[in-house]
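go over my protein:
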Amino acid sequence: MKKKEMLKRARKAAVRFMRDDDFKVIDEDFMGFIVSRDYRTLVFTKLVVNVGAFTEVADDCIVIEQAMMMWLLCHDDIDIPIRYDEISLAVAGEERAGLRYCRRCC
């Protein structure tokens, strides 16, 4: 499977996972993040995809904070808590992948 197709399918799977977990997905690709609401919290979720293994949780808080600030400058959601989550997919084959969900990663 080509990398572009794998990333597209991974993003679709991540969004489906979030919707199944009662997140309201607002934007599926804002600066690389999936933006959603979890009740009264605005959530920025980074999607990480690797073949064969999970990755370590990202700790680049500056990039995350920049994306959050850009969102707040463009939208009215300014008086709610903000959280950063991460979904990591370990692709095991054409139709198989493991999903790890990290809440409050940064």
User: Anything to note?
Assistant: The mean pLDDT is 83. The beta strands are 24-30, 33-38, 41-51, 82-93, 96-102. The longest strand covers residues 82-93.
